[in-house]
Design brief:
- There is one protein chain.
- The chain is an alpha/beta fold.
- The chain has two domains: 131 residues, Rossmann fold, CATH 3.40.50; 101 residues, OB fold (Dihydrolipoamide Acetyltransferase, E2P) (Beta Barrel), CATH 2.40.50.
- Strands 2-1-3-4-5 form a five-stranded parallel sheet, with helices on both faces. A five-stranded antiparallel sheet has the order 10-9-8-12-11, with no helix packed on it.
- Helix 3 runs parallel beside helix 4.
- The chain is elongated, with a radius of gyration of 27 Å.
- The chain starts with a helix and ends in a 12-residue tail after the last strand.
């Protein structure tokens, strides 16, 4: 029997089987590889952080396909519609549309990992079923935990994030507005808007304004949780600076950044862990 005769008999057999069942000849089933090769989109407005996140994901999860990268919320929304990802790595603070606005469209459609510098939303994210929450700068060890959680969730329906988004859209909590600081034998009341920077000094924290320095006992860690993150940036484990007091950023020959202040002569060192804040300057 020739090969063509054999193929012809197979075709007639398929037609006869279909006719006897009253149906049509079904094409061979297509294998779906979304579970084995999940698809992801990265939405992050800082290019270097976006590239670093993609590289880390590539090393931690080689099977993951990063099918698109967005630099703003509008582009992220278009990619969400066009690329139908399984996972969305989403920065909360982005131009165009915020990450929260994009997340409303992604709710129930894909698993979401929020990537942000602000940690006040972390607890709410876990309570309401968001896939995960990763703080900048993203570390390989922390991202590995996220990857493990995502691998358990891939193949299951993405959760609705309506409760989370309602909570995140609620009015923000109040931040520290003034402090009582020791200055010699007196105690000064200083509004935080007048503070140029806070810096750890042994058991105390220095409170530096344009023309004076005072001391408080509150540690830098506690201050970082009480100050408005849009006005005060941590640039070193021992230093928090008022963004409005920054005159500029200079770099040495090795590329290390230092903050130059308005009305003050000292320079503040920026550690590598916080250098991403100034990479686009």
């Amino acid at each position: 029997m020739t090969g063509s005769d054999w193929n012809g008999r197979r075709l007639y057999a398929m037609i006869d089987a279909s006719a006897s069942s009253g149906g049509e000849v079904a094409p061979p089933p297509r294998k779906r590889d979304h579970v084995a090769r999940p698809r992801a989109i990265i939405a992050e407005d800082e290019p270097l952080l976006r590239e670093e996140l993609a590289e880390l994901l590539g090393s931690l999860w080689p099977e993951l396909q990063v099918v698109a990268q967005a630099g703003d919320g509008i582009a992220a929304l278009h990619m969400l519609q066009a690329d139908t990802p399984d996972i969305l790595f989403l920065d909360i603070q982005m131009p165009g549309l915020t990450g929260l606005e994009v997340a409303r469209q992604a709710s129930g459609r894909c698993h979401v990992v929020f990537v942000t510098a602000y940690d006040q939303h972390a607890v709410a994210a876990f309570e309401h079923g968001a896939a995960d929450f990763v703080l900048k700068p993203v570390s390989a060890a922390r991202l590995a935990i996220t990857v493990a959680r995502l691998k358990e969730r891939i193949g299951h329906p993405a959760p609705s994030m309506d409760g989370l988004l309602r909570e995140l859209a609620a009015p923000t909590r109040s931040y520290l507005r003034w402090i009582n600081a020791s200055h010699g034998q007196t105690v000064r009341v200083i509004t935080v808007e007048d503070v140029f920077y806070f810096q750890a000094d042994n058991k105390y924290t220095r409170v530096v304004t344009a023309d004076a320095e005072s001391l408080i006992r509150k540690p830098i860690k506690d201050l970082s949780e009480e100050l408005d993150p849009s006005d005060f940036w941590q640039i070193h484990r021992s230093t928090i600076v008022n963004v409005n007091a920054i005159a500029g950023v200079v770099r040495d020959l090795r590329g290390h950044a230092q903050v130059r202040l308005k009305k003050r002569s000292e320079m503040l060192v920026v550690s590598e862990a916080y250098a991403h804040r100034f990479r686009q300057m």
